[in-house]
Amino acid sequence: MSADTASRDAATPPAPPRTQPWILMYHSVADPTDDPYGITVSPERLDEQLRLLGRRGLTGVGVGALLRARAEGRARGLVGLTFDDGYRDFTDHALPLLRRHGCTATVFVLPGRPGGENAWDALGPRKPLLSEDGVRAAAAAGMEIGSHGLCHQDITAVTDDELREETRGSRELIRRITGVAPEGFCYPYGTIDRRAVDAVRDAGYTYGCAIAPGPLAADHALARTHISHADRGLRLTVKRNLHRLRQLAPGAGR
């Protein structure tokens, strides 16, 4: 390397790190009366939350669309909406509200449990999951379909063969159901480690959604904000501001 080249390289500032977009994490949209895990939002509250986002100049979109918009410099005014587990109440309650507010979302489904229920939630209550027809209906309505693994296992605690099935295998099953291989993977329970993140990337996914990925934060380990029935105007504002503050932390958005 010549002295001139070395001088130019030294004078070139490093590229700024990508900021992680604001992505909201929903689960079930139904009656929240019996909700031991705090994952259920009533249809009325979801309607209110989407209306509040709209008043703040934000439109909800799926994560794939959000990342493409970010890459093209047009993500301003967009917020990611995700619905984990693929509950049947998504098409019953959430989908009509998303349409009303001009929003789309990513639905992370479990292709190993089509038409099943949330057996992994020890405290219940039991909630039906989308059937294959339900997944196709959500996709036909313009929603992005992503993978949540096969059967909602903590993929940091499985064997290498099981990990391939949870990542590659679930991607292939969704491709068979919808005709399109999913772009996104959502880590069950939000738990990640380097092996899991590498497996998601190697399986061909464009991105992965976690919850609080810490030093692994990147496009294959995106942070998300949990949204509950209790989140209204002030709480949503606080959560948005917390997300902004986290972007200022050293190493954020690598």
In short:
The protein has 254 residues and is an alpha/beta fold. It is 37% helix and 13% strand.
Walk me through the structure.
By secondary structure, the chain is of the alpha/beta class. It has eight helices and ten strands. It has helices at 3-11, 43-55, 63-71, 89-100, 132-140, 160-178, 194-202, 233-246, and strands at residues 23-26, 28-29, 40-41, 59-61, 78-84, 106-109, 144-147, 184-186, 207-209, 225-226. Strands 1, 4, 5, 6, 7 and 10 form a six-stranded parallel beta sheet that branches. Strands 2-3 form a two-stranded parallel ribbon. Strands 8-9 form a two-stranded parallel ribbon. Strand 5 (78-84), helix 4 (89-100) and strand 6 (106-109) form a beta-alpha-beta unit. Helix 6 packs parallel to helix 7 (194-202). The longest helix has 19 residues, at 160-178. The chain starts with a helix and ends in an 8-residue tail after the last helix. Residues 1-17 have low confidence and may be disordered.
List the helices and strands and how they pair.
Layout: H1 3-11, E1 23-26, E2 28-29, E3 40-41, H2 43-55, E4 59-61, H3 63-71, E5 78-84, H4 89-100, E6 106-109, H5 132-140, E7 144-147, H6 160-178, E8 184-186, H7 194-202, E9 207-209, E10 225-226, H8 233-246
Parallel strand pairs: 1-5, 1-10, 2-3, 4-5, 5-6, 6-7, 8-9
